[in-house]
Amino acid sequence: DTGVSQNPRHKITKRGQNVTFRCDPISEHNRLYWYRQTLGQGPEFLTYFQNEAQLEKSRLLSDRFSAERPKGSFSTLEIQRTEQGDSAMYLCASSLMGEAFFGQGTRLTVV
Amino acid sequence: EDQVTQSPEALRLQEGESSSLNCSYTVSGLRGLFWYRQDPGKGPEFLFTLYSAGEEKEKERLKATLTKKESFLHITAPKPEDSATYLCAVQALAERGYQKVTFGTGTKLQVIP
Question: Quick one: average pLDDT of A40-62?
Fold first, then answer.
């Protein structure tokens, strides 16, 4: 049984560039979450999918951020025109009903 | 708005010195409370789910308990490998049936040999 997989593990990008992250959830899980975590803080909710439908987005999510989950399988998170404040760990999690299981995250550094 | 407060922020224990971590929460319609362990540079690792006051769960040296306002993670005779950040999260029913999960900022535990 494979867990939640995220790629890439690390990404360094120049300010103003676009980046895209991928998340492959646990195969039978219909719920998928994206979180952002900065040093010393807990994960902060970004968005939630149930199957292919994006049902919730954080008010903190600017229009530079977009997420998709085509066919209810893998998901992508794209950040356009990156800013230094976007530097963080981006975590993906999936669940069936209750507890969510996390991937190892993608560490984004914007220089 | 749902709130989760964890204390202490950091805890340093000698190996074998038992202690407890606290998670206080304010939420409308609690659906579940989760404990996770997170090692540096990695994603959170699921430990426990608690659903109702009075419930307890155990795993090795860890025991989680739940009341109507808080949860405790008890660590008995900790070992250096228990060093990590422990995160608490609450799940509540939000709009449109979405079950919102709110995390605390965590307790960073260091166990000294």
Answer: 91
CB A42 within 8 A of CB B101: no
Does a cis peptide bond (omega within 30 degrees of 0) precede residue B78? no
Q: Which of A2-6, A57-61, A80-84 has the lowest mean pLDDT?
A: A57-61
- Separation of alpha carbons B91 and B49, rounded Å: 10
Please give the residue of chain B at the shortest CA–CA distance from A41: B105
Q: Which residue from A48, A87, A82, A53 is spatially nearest to A65, judged by alpha carbons?
A: A82
Interface of B with A in 49-88 (CB under 8 A): 49, 87
Within 8 A of B36 by CB-CB distance, chain A residues are 102
Judging contacts by C-beta atoms under 8 Å, the chain A residues touching residue B89 are: 42-43
pLDDT in tens, B62-94: 999 999 999 999 999 999 999 999 999 999 877
Question: Which residues, 6 or more positions from A66, have their beta carbon under 8 angstroms from its beta carbon?
Answer: A77, A78, A80
A76: Cα separation from own chain's centroid:
7
Q: Contact B76/B61 with Cβ under 8 angstroms? A: yes
Q: Is the dihedral of CA A86, B38, B5, B24 positive or negative?
A: positive
Nearest-angstrom CA–CA distance, A42 and B87: 7
